[in-house]
Amino acid sequence: MGGSAVVVGAGIGGLAAAIGLRLIGWEVTVVERAPVLADAGAGISLHANGLRALDVLGVGEAVRAAARPQRTGGTRVPGGGVLARMDGTVLERELGTPIVGIPRAALHRLLRAALPAECLVVGAEAESVDRSDPGRVRIPLGDAVLEAALVVAADGVGSRLRAQMFPRHPGPVYSGSTVLRAITEGPVELATDFELTWGKGAEFGHIAFTDGRAEWHAVLNSPPGVRYADPLAVMRRRFGNWHDPIPALLEATRPGAVLHHDIHELATPLPAFTAGRTVLLGDAAHAMTPNLGQGACQALEDAVVLAAVLATEPTVESALARYDTERRPRSQSVSRAARRAGRMGQQLTQPLAVALRNTALRLAPSGVTVRAILRHADWTPPGLS
Fold first, then answer.
1. In terms of DSSP bridges, do strands 144-148 and 82-85 run parallel, antiparallel, or are they unpaired?
2. In terms of Cα–Cα distance, which of 189, 214, 289, 373 is closest to 205?
3. I want to staple 219 with a disulfide (CB 3.0 to 4.6 A). Which of 61, 138, 203, 245 is the partner?
């Protein structure tokens, strides 16, 4: 089965979906509302399931070459004490690939490089889909109208297309946490590839890159909408007395490089990921908190499964029904697990609860962290015919 598709959103999930659809012979147009693809963003960790999906899409080797394996790291407390160590070598042995860290901008560029430039339409916003014809869908874009056999709604956590598909769904809600993050201006001396530090209602973490720079993020319990005139100065006051290398990471950052976003999630699961010939993918389908590092990986899984079912099912309708059956239970389960991890990690503030959690982590066998990661990362993708 072949056809034409419009992918709404040129993020990681949307670009991956476009690559997968083209690999199975579909004509694809990617519509992105941003007028310029500026490659903004900080860093990202990719687990084995995301990398395996990228392998199926033909870009896994390029991503690994641009990424740094995460073989050392773990979780600490602000004073520097170790709560849990991450043995990346064991994970690599179990999964055949390490977790890797890469700048989001680099990942975006590699995904775009796998697509012809003419299939990307920027500066155009798809606000609705006309599904009145059961065999085709129409997407108004200003004065023009795109027609296709399929629309892939990869338009993010605030998806307008999802709201049109499920008008009674409450939509995304604020998670209770906000995140500030940046990439250092230059190389930073780091003893670990990846690290998290948990305080009361706060988390600080870093991801090291191949060029010696690093991404850092600070997650805080906060009311929504709070912003700072000088966010880097606030971070230095908040985390300046935490263990090394946290002060050094902040000192190596330009003030204008700090990004600040409130974290929203789809706390109420969607009843379906499809409606007619429109299919939800990535954050539009299952926006989750970042506590497991699985958001992008789940979007990449979505993209590969969507291409696989369209390659093997006789009709678009049967393919989308199978996509919903395969993707919705898994991605919604990962989303619930991420929410639980946040509540037991960064969001804890009550001193006794924090002390009990820290004691439990210190006493846990070394294999607990590995098993927790394997639970979500050990996923086998379908092949693309």
1. unpaired
2. 214
3. 203
